[in-house]
Amino acid sequence: MFDTYHDIFLRRADSYQRAMKLYPEARDAEFHIIANIVSSNRSVKVCDAPAGGGYLRRYLSDSVTQYIAVETTPEFINHCPSGASDTVLNCQPDAIDLPSESVDHVVSIAGTHHLPDKCAFFAEAARILQPNGCITIFDVEVGTGPAEFLNGFVDEHNSIGHKGDFLDSMTALDVAAQGLTVEANAVMPFPWSFDSELDMGTFCASLFGIDRADIPTVIKSIDHILGRCSGPKKVNLCWQMRQITARK
Ligand SMILES: C[S@@+](CC[C@H](N)C(=O)[O-])C[C@H]1O[C@@H](n2cnc3c(N)ncnc32)[C@H](O)[C@@H]1O
After folding, report:
1. For the whole model, what pTM was predicted?
2. Whose CA is nearest to atom 8 of ligand 1?
3. Given ligand 1 and candidates 3, 4, 5, 190, which is best to mutate, with the most ligand atoms within 8 Å of its CB?
């Protein structure tokens, strides 16, 4: 039987965290873009749900005075930032332990495809946002290379499996149904960048817990399903996600 994603991340977080630590610049593109969105909205109190190991934190400008990581997986919680302006909340993304109208920006990167009820999370985000506050969601889109890679190759070559419930052009309607005004809704490229193809294969194998394929097979599948693109480093993998930004 397929475990819940909460159970899966109890077992997979260690390997995911290792990949993010070994290749801290691989996902710079998506974190820089989301940090720019936060800055351009002058958001100072930011809630990241689910945050993983709080990877976004170091990309946010100094004007962000409070970074709140929402996370339930202990291995990730242990790696979340712990500075004076950082808070970690061990709670579900659809039951965030914050007062109503208390944050400027809710961000969610690559997490909603694991949630059993996305709308419950969107409603919770709308509750904790201040009037005029924003939610920005980045996640994998159905029918794209990343969706095929995760629910196909990763599902077959990770002994825990992968069955993501990805976003589509209609997801923004579920966000709008929470009383938010959608300002951006598009699929965007975010290259993942490496110095070598060995690094690319090693990162993906560790990030996605691929334990039933060797690195050359992972590289071959990346090239077949995702492909390469231009980017800041020698080897750039074509990752892409839907971005939805909405305002209260
Ligand atoms: C792919 S990671 C993304 C983490 C981080 N935002 C990033 O960009 O690397 C998925 C996240 O969803 C969380 N997660 C998965 N299933 C969950 C569930 N059912 N309830 C709550 N959190 C869940 C995991 O703990 C993890 O933080």
Report:
1. 0.95
2. 109
3. 5
